[in-house]
From TrEMBL:
It comes from the Bacteria. Transmembrane segments: none annotated. This is DUF433 domain-containing protein. Pfam families: DUF433 (PF04255).
Amino acid sequence: MKENTYNTDLLRRITYDPNICHGQPCIRGLRYPVELILELLSSGMTTEEILEDYDDLETEDILATLLFAARLSQVKSIHKIPS
């Protein structure tokens, strides 16, 4: 599947930096991990509510988070790591 420019631009909003949030994927180098945004959405918060609570975030950041999560879910198989 060929990536369109809009999706590519959205995914560029997801950054990795070992000095920010221990290298977790974050929004635009800010200290907002993708995981936090997904948790807020899954708790029932709307995009508008998240944007009201977090002034630095933009609508495209929420969309980028969802696109990133969608791409992660496209993994073909998951193997349990022995404990």
